[in-house]
Amino acid sequence: MRLSLNTQILLGTLAGILLGLVFSKLGPDAVISRNGLYLSGLVGNIFIDLLKMILVPLVFTSIAVGVANLRVHQQMHRVWISTLAFFVFSMAIAILLGLSAANLFEPGKGLSLDLFHDAMQRFETRQMTPAEFTVKFFHGLFVNPFAALADGNVLAIVIFALFLGIALVIGGERYRNILVLLQETLELTLRIVGWIMRLAPAGIMALLAQLVATQNPALLSSLAKFVTVVLGTTLLHGFVVLPLILFIITGITPLHFLRNAREALLTAFATSSSSATLPVTLRCAEQHLHVKPDIAGFVIPLGATVNMDGTALYEAAAALFVANLMGVELNLAQQLIVSATAMLAAIGAPGIPSAGMVTMVMVLQSVGLPAEAIAILLPVDRLLDTVRTMVNVEGDMVGSLVVQKITRPNRPD
Ligand code: ASP
């Protein structure tokens, strides 16, 4: 009997966590752990490298083809507007959840700051105000497409592919050959994604074994309450709020959705990168969840860098945590500022591991909290990144289904 890929990935996840626990129990110097971790590093890196290899051609062709095909339905602007509206709406809910949980449970209250004194002293941050951040963000949108493709700059690739897609729509029949070429390149890249996915169970196992084995339990326990509040709220958003929104708008049941989205969710969990997961996310949306390629090809790549519910929630909750540690009470106006900058920070964070940590600086500074405080959060960031990336990716898939429902109700084609 051959196990389905979905089941293999699930088994890989469990085996990875177990192996990681064994390695950390034996200690890093034991022969088994040393060789095991070496091998995990090798396999995990190859898996991520393969995903990154296919990422750029995939994003480029899927967006250009997605946008060019929207013409057929004359609904480009409806798709645009509903996509952006959904992204803002779902991130706003995530932020509200994060802030509510942090206000309710008050993580950080009563913790001694001395505990973190050293970490803060050793840490230097680059100061960046929200205004500077916004300028930098917009500056990074329009880049020489060849440089963007060579550097793997996903957001800039998305923007150029949008231009190309729109030009193809307006140019119409005259550029038919180029559209066909792009469509066929997209098909070919998806074929390669299928091959890469065969390595997913082993890749995910290796990445998780490494991650679990390198966690520091002592540091974790000092931040236990914060970690629990953030993980709990992120999971609530991912397993209750998003599926509920999906169910209300599209009628798709949570179980059906989660079962078909599982490949992408577990890959996001193991890689902590929405961008690296993107090939898998697209595959799940189109092949398992039956989102039409023109919608998925547009919503998912854009969402991978722009729509980050987990990151937005984390940034808002973490700002309150730091305020509590400092003994600062943030009033309603300040919490609103935190909400707005958390959304900006999540939109601006690229889909790579710990990116949210970097843009966190801006959120802290927006209400005058010391940027150095992110040193306190660093030790637990890789752990929290797993779950928030999973929810980031989930939001993109939910978004594509919602946008499909809103813009093309009852169209079977
Ligand atoms: N790792 C996250 C992602 O790729 C971004 C973050 O650090 O919050 O979606």
> What Rg is obtained from the alpha carbons, in whole angstroms?
21 Å
What small molecules are bound in this structure? Answer: aspartic acid
What class, by secondary structure content? mainly alpha
Number of domain modules:
1
Task: Provide a short characterization of the protein structure.
The chain is an all-alpha fold and 413 residues long. Helices cover 80% and strands 0% of the residues.
Q: How does this structure look, described?
A:
The protein is mainly alpha-helical and about 425 residues long. The chain has a single domain (about 5-405), classed as Proton glutamate symport protein (Orthogonal Bundle). Helices cover about 80% and strands about 0% of the residues. It has helices at about 5-25, 30-70, 75-105, 115-120, 130-140, 145-150, 155-170, 175-200, 200-215, 215-220, 225-250, 255-270, 275-290, 295-305, 310-325, 330-350, 355-365, 375-405. Helix 2 packs across helix 9 (about 200-215), helix 3 (about 75-105) packs antiparallel against helix 11 (about 225-250) and helix 11 packs antiparallel against helix 15 (about 310-325). The longest helix is centred in the first third of the chain and has 40 residues, at about 30-70. The protein is globular, with a radius of gyration of 21 Å. The two termini are about 35 Å apart. The structure holds aspartic acid. Aspartic acid binds near residues 274, 311, 354 and 356. Aspartic acid binds near residues 273 and 356.
